[in-house]
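Severity: low
Component: inverse-folding endpoint
Summary: output formatting inconsistent between runs
Steps to reproduce: submit the following structure tokens with default settings.
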């Protein structure tokens, strides 16, 4: 039993949801880059106890994750754009279609 009631979505809502998902993914990648990776690569503060090799390893893991998510998102944007999925006309309200 779902936590919330499933409501049928209109074609416009489906197109907007796809657009929102893409921009949220890209915004999350940008947030990780500017607020996690860049501060980790800056010279450490004197009272910072994190080992430099651990710091670099964690930064590399974040960089790989951001690159993979970014590539997947950009690829999905290009494919969706070519298929016209950002337009409401790409979705039909008829459940039999």
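Observed output (run 2 of 3):
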């Amino acid at each position: 039993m779902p936590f919330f009631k499933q409501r049928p979505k209109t074609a416009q809502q489906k197109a907007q949801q796809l657009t929102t998902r893409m921009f949220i993914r890209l915004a999350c990648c940008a947030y990780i880059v500017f607020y996690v990776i860049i501060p980790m690569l800056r010279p450490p503060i004197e009272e910072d106890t994190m080992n430099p090799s651990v710091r670099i390893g964690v930064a590399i893991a974040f960089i790989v994750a951001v690159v993979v998510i970014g590539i997947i998102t950009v690829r999905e944007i290009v494919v969706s754009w070519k298929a016209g999925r950002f337009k409401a006309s790409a979705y039909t309200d008829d459940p039999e279609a």
